Amino acid sequence: MEPNDKTTVAIAEPSQMAHEAVAEHLRTGGSTFDPRSGQNLAGSRHHVVTVAPEHSVALNHPPTPEEHDAFVAAHHELLRSRTNSAVGTFHNPEDSMHYIEIVGLTPSKNAALEMAAHLGEGHVHNLANDEKTSTGAKAEFRASDSTPEERLRHLHSQSPKRELYSGTHFSDRKLDVIEGARRGEPGDAKTPASHSDAARVHLGTKTGMGPDAPAGFYSVKAGHPAPPSELAKPHSHQVRGQFAFASTEHPEFKRGYAEGVQKAALAGADPQTAHHLGLNTAEHALQDEGYDGYYSPKHNGLRFHFGDHVVSHAHSVDAKK
């Protein structure tokens, strides 16, 4: 090549994920993205906790797409191998700095809080509702003998094991999404509200003596007969996926129930109100453990699911046909 020859060096454009993550950061003050799929995890049923604070990058400006991509590339092996890892960014108004970090994903609020406390992190973040829960720590990194990979493995081990489940949700109208927020709502004149949930869904707000019930819905497990109240509804939708169900015999359910009843009774609630608030507290306890729902051994075929579920119309039918 002659000295005066000109060559063109191709400069890779930032990834689409990096552009989207930075846009999310600028809009909301933070972001969490799956580096394997490029998916924005905002709104998903995950609690996130920083698992490698020693590798966090602190910036005095919002991250650029190039800086986001460089961070992902620097930790490619860990992010590729541990599927409960993600890349998070956040703006800390206390020091005006912006951070890029490796975060761990878990459905268990309790497991996330344990990890955060171990590493001296100040809070964990629930992506489903954008809620932050403080650990009481001063957000100062505590030295640990474990590696980020070991922490991610531990976080995974503390999450309930999911298994394939197939069931049917019955409804009074055709659905694109089974909305947990409709729990306890009355149906039409022919299909009244079932499962006695209406009496306790908003009981915490009404009485001030405990929590409201978590949002969610019911399904009937495949191979089990549906109650007549469900069969009376004109539409059915298959609920299929990986879920972790606890039972009403689970220690966390029993502990939550006892605590909820006691708190309500001390506040002056009558026995029936205390019972309902105890059930609400027990459900929250299971949700915080990371379970997707639960069942009673007496009615093994009827499952309660926390949150929403996207309906596949390929498996949805008109029950009257």
Plain-language structure description:
The chain is of the alpha+beta class and 321 residues long. The protein is built from nine helices and 16 strands. The protein has helices at residues 16-28, 65-74, 76-81, 109-119, 148-157, 203-207, 228-231, 251-266, 271-289, and strands at 30-33, 47-50, 57-59, 85-92, 97-106, 123-126, 131-134, 163-171, 177-178, 216-221, 235-243, 245-247, 293-296, 299-306, 309-310, 316-318. Strands 1, 2, 3, 4, 5, 6 and 7 form a seven-stranded antiparallel beta sheet that branches. A seven-stranded mixed beta sheet has the order 12-13-14-10-8-11-16, covered by helices on one side. β13 (293-296) and β14 (299-306) form a beta hairpin. The longest helix is centred in the C-terminal third of the chain and has 19 residues, at 271-289. The chain is globular.
